[in-house]
């Protein structure tokens, strides 16, 4: 099941995403979902681990800062 989210981006970025999506022949929402999946995978590969965070806890807070 997919979950719908709403994101506000600067006009310039929206225009770039629209051009990219058009070039790829897909909807902007599909392109954004793909890019978000890649970003999450990359963060995990680089060692980010938010799976143990408590609700409302930030990265800095969990490091004791």
TrEMBL record:
Any one Gene Ontology BP term: regulation of DNA-templated transcription
The CopG-like ribbon-helix-helix domain, residue ranges: 2-44
Biased composition (Basic and acidic residues): 56-65
Signal peptide (residue range): none
Gene3D superfamilies xrefs: Met repressor-like
InterPro entries named among the record's database cross-references: Arc_rbn_hlx_hlx (IPR013321), RHH_5 (IPR012869), Ribbon_hlx_hlx (IPR010985)
Segments for region (Disordered): 43-65
Matches recorded under SUPFAM superfamilies: Ribbon-helix-helix
Coiled coil: none
Pfam family, one: RHH_5
Name this polypeptide is given: CopG-like ribbon-helix-helix domain-containing protein
Organism: Leptothoe spongobia TAU-MAC 1115
